[in-house]
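Protocol step 4 of 5: obtain the predicted structure for the target chain.
Materials: sequence only (see below). No template structures provided, no constraints applied. The aim of this step is simply to have a reference model before the mutagenesis design in step 5. Sequence pasted as it appears in the construct record:
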Amino acid sequence: MKRVLLMVMCVVMFVAANPVKNGYEVGDVATDFKLKNVDGKMVSLADFKDAKGYVLIFDCNTCPYSKAYNQRIIDLNEKYSTKGFPVITINANEGSGDSYSEMVRIANKKKYKFPYLYDESQETAKAYGATNTPHVFVLTKDLKVSYIGAIDDSPSNAAGVTKRYVEDAVDALLKGASVPVTKTKAIGCGIKWKRA
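Step 4 output (C-alpha cells):
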C-alpha cells in the first residue's frame, strides 16, 4: 500500500512540476498547417516560398473587436507582404456567422488580398494556443514564434493607437534586431469552441 501511495505521489509531483502546455510561447518553433482558403485552395505556410516570416492572425467575422481591426489587418498586409511578411488569417470560430460561406462572402466584400483560412477542426487554433479574435502570432521564416498578442494598444479604434506591437515586431525582424515587446494580452472575443 505504501508503495502504491508513493508512486501516486511521484506522479502528482511530476505533473505539477511539468504542467500540460497549451499552445506556443515566444521562442518556440511552431508547426505548419494546411487549411482551406476562401478561394477553395488548401494553403500552408510552406506555400510562401519567398517569405521572410509571417503575420498569423486568428480572426473571425462576428466579433466587434475583429470588425474594429479589419482595416488595420488589411493595412498590415499591404505594408508587409511586399517586404516578405504576408498576413495569413485563420477563422476557427464555431457558429453560423463564422461559417465557411460567410468567410467567403466577407473576404469578397472586403477584397482580401491575403489568405482567410478555415480551421474547421479547430486543431490549428488549439496547437497555437489562440484564445481570442484577433490573436496574433508573428513567426520567422523558420517558424520561430517572435511575438504573441494584440495588433496594437487600441482595440476599439485606430485613432487611439499609440503602440503598434505587430509593426514593431516585424520592423525589428526585418532589421535583424530583437523584437522590443514579445508578448501582450490579446484583446478580443473568446474563440467559440465546438462542444465536446
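Step 4 remarks: The mean pLDDT is 91. The chain has one domain: 23-190.
Proceed to step 5.
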